[in-house]
Each structure stands twice: as structure tokens, then as C-alpha cells.
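Researcher: I'd like a structural prediction for the single chain below. Treat it as a standalone chain; there are no partners to consider.
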Amino acid sequence: MTESKEPPITARTMEPRATAVYALGSNPAESARLRRQSDELRPYSAELLDRVGLQPGQTAIDLGCGPSGILQLLSERVSPGGRVVGADADPTHVTMATQFADEQGLRNVEIIEADAGHTGLPSRSFDLVHSRTLLVTIPEPATAVAEMVRLARPGGWVASLEPDTEHGLCYPAHPAFARLGALFGAAFRRNGADPFIGRRLPELYRNAGLHDIGVEARAPIHPPGDTRRTIQLDLVRSMRPMILAMGLAEERELDELDRTAREHLANPNTLVMPGLYFLAWGRTPDFAA
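Model: Treating it as a single chain, here is the predicted structure.
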């Protein structure tokens, strides 16, 4: 791939800012889940990039990129001559994303440590500002959306892929799955995160001043063997320290719930739809017009 000739955005260009609260915590299991998620959600992310028409030579940023995000997809879309920045507030994920970019030979990708709500990056820097499953995890998503709009060039695009878990489905129902769902909701919302953020994307975009807003939803049924089939159980595993600290459940109960629910989901006759995925995009005003 062709390297961009634009100067890199380095830590020296950024103001130090406080890190936003991430509802799922920071631990090796969560980092591994995020790496899997890059492959799991790749088709939906590719669809989203199709909607905004990202072109070779353009610039893009993946906010909250985690250990890999959609860095490879963005790199492919803007090559040759384009440039990609991955930004994450977790230093561990910054290191992992840097290693990922190096391993994949993504020479037009730079990784920086930055809070999604206050990156400290120059305004109007990118043709596309993207986030995926970021807004669902933070207590003030409107702040992050406002930052995304600030970073987009006039006439540029802001795009997000976010879940909405209200209409998740497990059939036949199972008490262990239901109990884990309740624990997930209680722990996830503890700092103000919204598991129903998907439906709010068009509203957040409108309030931030975007226009030409589009939104689509996907309702996938995950078959046996699909790693996304157990996403809620995997999230509860990631949040186990928080659940225990909040006194919502004890270790023995969590072990039994996890074992029983996974057995139920392993049954090929069990129907699993964890929730909806919302794809949203909007354009910034073109001040040059």
C-alpha cells in the first residue's frame, strides 16, 4: 500500500485529556473479544463504508478503535494515497492496534492515544470520522458525536455502527440466559451507558448539526458455532469483576449461569438474536458551497 505524504498526527499535537469511562472495563478477555469483533462485524462495517463512499486518497479516523477496529477496512478503502488514524483511550489497546497495523502492513495507518470526546486533534481534518460500538459504552455519547462532527471536513461524513439490545431473542427462553441479561443490564448502565443507543443515532446526528442522515438496521440470527451467538455471555464475563464488586451475584452463581446458558445456546434448535445493529451516517455542512 502507498504511504501517505501528509505529516503524521503525533501525540505532540494533542492536549492531554481525561479518559472517558468504558462500560465494559479493561482486561485481557475484553481485549480478545474486541479483536474477534473486528471479524464478526466486518460485513456490516463494509456496508457502512459503502454508504459514505470513502475513496482512495481520502483521510479517515476510527475513534475508539480498540485493538484493531476497522483499521484494515479503512486502509484498503483510502489506498493509494490516503491516510488513516486509529484513536483509543486505553494505552493497552493503542499498543495492540499499533502491533496489528504493523503485522498487517498497514503503512498508511497511525495509532494515537486519545479520548473520543476530547481528542485534541485539529478540526476539519478527516473526510470520514467513524466509530463502532463506542457510543454504546460511554456515558455521554452526545459529546463524542460533537467531537466527531468537529473532526470532519466541510461536506465530510460521520458514520457509526451501534447495537440496540432491547429486542434480543433467545428461543426457547432459558432462566440462566434471562438472569445473565439482567446482570448485564445492571452492570452496563452503572456509569450511564445506554444499551439502546442504536435507535438514538439519527437524533444524536441531527442534534449535532449533520444532514443527509441515513440509518439502517440489521437483525442477524446467529447459527451454532458463530462467535456472536454468545456475545451477551461473553460481555458478562468481561464485566464479572464489576458485577462482583457491585454485589449483584457471587462467583459460584456466575459460574453456574455461564455453564448452563452456554449449554442452551449450543443446542442447534435454540434461536439466538442478541439484538439489532444500527448503521447510521450523516454529512457535515459544506461551507464552501
